[in-house]
Automatic annotation (TrEMBL):
The chain crosses the membrane at residues 159-175, 195-214. It comes from the Eukaryota. One of its GO terms (biological process) is protein ubiquitination. It comes from Malassezia globosa (strain ATCC MYA-4612 / CBS 7966). This is RING-type domain-containing protein. One of its GO terms (molecular function) is ubiquitin protein ligase activity. Keywords: Membrane, Transmembrane, Transmembrane helix.
Length: 628
């Protein structure tokens, strides 16, 4: 079956056009419906149906009840009417671009045709009153849904209409199965699934209400019923609604247990984020946020997102899905999968409890799959097994070789670092002159070697008190100052010895200058390095004075959780849409108040945005994590 939607926008059909399109299908189902009703009332041989058939025969004249019905031709006309109705429904849905959520495919035309064929040709499954009633309910459902689709907003929702028929047929199934043995077994699969799912829902509600009563002393209806996230839509069918509620009950039972209440979800605020299975992050803004962005620009660090929606991986429509009732089959599969997970979890828990009391498993049980493989495949299966084991061993050996290589590279790096350490004041530098002026190197030396906080502060004071025309403080001089400070008996002696230390290191500073490029580049490098180093070290000094000594001894996995800006607080802010977890809330507030980056959109349009500090992606919004 090929469903071809019109090119361009959807067709705007009014009520008259919808009636003209759907009324022929309704008329084609009306004639088989009347004949099915007459055939049901003509059944006098089913004992369990006689007490309600006498009320159904009241509206029919006696002449219509005489004789028999040709059920083969009746079921054939019913099938033709159902096919025509499905074609009309698909055509209308394609013309108006009606999504599957508003008009789901629940009528399985293939199974309906199979059941009609069996009852028409097989004498062992001749139709009785129960079969006629089941077929009448299917035809009524199909015809009523087509009538309701004539209105853009139907007077009765799809869920209410199908629930009335579904509850009535479920009661008929339960009554017939409990008190008689005349219900057609071929039609009991769907009704058994609906009845068992309804039983699971009622059991979950009863246990949940009992838990609420035992914990709070009273039962509140608002806490007992399902939340809006679990409730079915008004466009769902009865079967889909029951399966959705049953799946929600099974998930709640498996994840939270009957001892916890079902918590309500937060309602979405203005802006929300949709996370797609393919890795895309779609940010949906509200009207208020869009108006603010148009007037003030985009400031993502001021727009907080408190609602993140995960879009499930929706499979593309399969070929023939409207014919087979693909939406109902999909919900049925979800329910069966959830039920299987609950059963598997229960069996695993029971096996773990009984494991200490059970005898050990014999050794041949573990080798049983191998024996079966040898018996079925012969030596071919054993050869594939040996090849797989050989590939696993080679992969493990390759990983070991890579780890050994990384370890050797790390050892060589540490060895070079040890060789670079100066042995005296006149030792030549083992690094480049440009690296000697790098502020990051000085900061790393300060963080790694200045473990004594007072001594570290004195060295920074020496750096700050250097005159502007003096050469910048190099790494070698920095190490020498640390060694000198470690020999000093007190901090005041170190502070009083500033001029002497400067004169003492003049030769080494001049030697370092010989390795630098001459000319204006040298002055530029010296000035920029001195200014950047002073600012960086002054900021580091202020942070080190605020931080406690215990905070400096954090392990690596804890330091990796710190903010990339302040390196003090944990990261609690996620940037959208890049998903970078990089900032704390305090740094986020500071960045929100800073000057924004101008992002051009054409020649006459420009927007101000904030960029992510890690990936430089424009930040449209943020979310906060509340870590326990």
């Amino acid at each position: 079956m090929h469903i071809c939607a019109p090119s361009g926008r959807a067709a705007n059909l009014n009520l008259t056009k919808r009636l003209i399109l759907r009324i022929p299908a309704v008329l084609m189902l009306a004639q088989p419906l009347i004949r099915l009703y007459i055939g049901m009332c003509q059944d006098y041989e089913t004992p369990s149906a006689q007490h309600w058939l006498k009320y159904a025969r009241i509206i029919l004249p006696n002449t219509w009840l005489e004789g028999t019905t040709n059920h083969a031709s009746l079921f054939w006309s019913t099938f033709i009417g159902a096919c025509f109705t499905q074609c009309v429904s698909i055509t209308a849905r394609s013309l108006e671009h009606i999504p599957s959520a508003e008009d789901p495919s629940t009528f399985n035309l293939a199974s309906f045709a199979f059941l009609l064929h069996v009852h028409s040709t097989n004498r062992a499954f001749l139709p009785n009153a129960h079969v006629y009633l089941i077929v009448i309910s299917r035809v009524l459902e199909l015809m009523g849904l087509n009538v309701l689709q004539c209105w853009r907003r139907p007077p009765v929702s799809r869920l209410v209409y199908t629930s009335a028929l579904g509850v009535l047929m479920t009661m008929h199934y339960v009554y017939t199965m409990l008190y008689t043995n005349e219900y057609p077994i071929m039609h009991s699969t769907t009704r058994f699934l609906e009845a068992s799912t309804a039983g699971i829902i009622l059991l979950t509600l009863c246990l949940h209400g009992l838990t609420v009563f035992m914990t709070d002393g009273h039962v509140s209806v608002n806490r007992l019923v399902f939340t809006s996230a679990n409730m079915p839509r008004s466009t769902d069918d009865y079967t889909i609604a029951v399966l959705k509620l049953g799946t929600a009950c099974l998930h709640a039972t498996r994840l939270t247990g009957f001892s916890l209440e079902l918590k309500t979800l937060d309602r979405p605020l203005h802006t929300y984020v949709e996370l797609h299975p393919d890795g895309r992050s779609v940010l949906q803004h509200g009207i208020v946020d869009i108006e603010q962005m148009e007037s003030d620009g985009i400031n993502g660090y001021e727009t907080e997102v408190k609602n993140v929606r995960v879009v499930m991986n929706e499979d593309p429509p399969e070929l023939g899905s409207p014919v087979r009732g693909g939406d109902k089959l999909r919900e049925c599969w979800s329910f069966v999968s959830a039920l299987g997970q609950v059963v598997k979890h229960s069996l695993s828990a029971a096996a773990l409890r009984l494991e200490p009391y059970c005898p050990p498993v014999p050794g041949f049980i573990h080798n049983l799959p191998r024996y079966v493989r040898l018996f079925w495949h012969g030596t071919n299966g054993e050869a594939r097994r040996e090849a797989r084991l050989r590939a696993e061993r080679e992969h493990t050996a390759e990983l070991d070789r890579r780890n050994e290589r990384l370890a050797s590279l790390h050892e060589r790096f540490l060895h070079r670092q040890i060789q670079r350490a100066p042995t005296g004041i006149h030792a030549p530098p083992a690094w480049l002159a440009i690296e000697d002026l790098d502020p990051l190197e000085l900061i790393s030396l300060a963080e790694n070697e200045a473990e004594d906080l007072p001594m570290f502060q004195d060295v920074l004071l020496k750096h700050m008190l250097r005159p502007d025309h003096a050469p910048p403080l190099t790494r070698r001089e920095y190490r020498q100052l640390i060694h000198n400070e470690s020999r000093a008996p007190a901090r005041d002696m170190a502070l009083s010895d500033i001029d002497h230390s400067t004169k003492k290191n003049a030769w080494s500073s001049a030697a370092a200058l010989l390795a630098l490029p001459a000319g204006p580049d040298l002055a530029t490098v010296q000035t920029a390095s001195d200014r950047n180093t002073q600012l960086a070290l002054l900021h580091l000094l202020q942070e080190r004075r605020r931080m406690d000594a215990s905070k400096n001894s954090r392990p690596d996995h804890e330091r990796s959780r710190l903010c990339v800006v302040c390196c003090c607080e944990e990261r609690t802010v996620i940037n959208w849409p890049c998903r970078c977890l990089a900032l704390c809330n305090a740094c986020r507030e500071i960045l929100a108040n800073q000057q924004k980056i101008i992002l051009s959109h054409g020649q006459n349009r420009a927007r101000t945005v904030q960029l992510c500090p890690t990936c430089r992606t424009p930040v449209l919004a943020f979310s906060r994590l509340y870590l326990p």
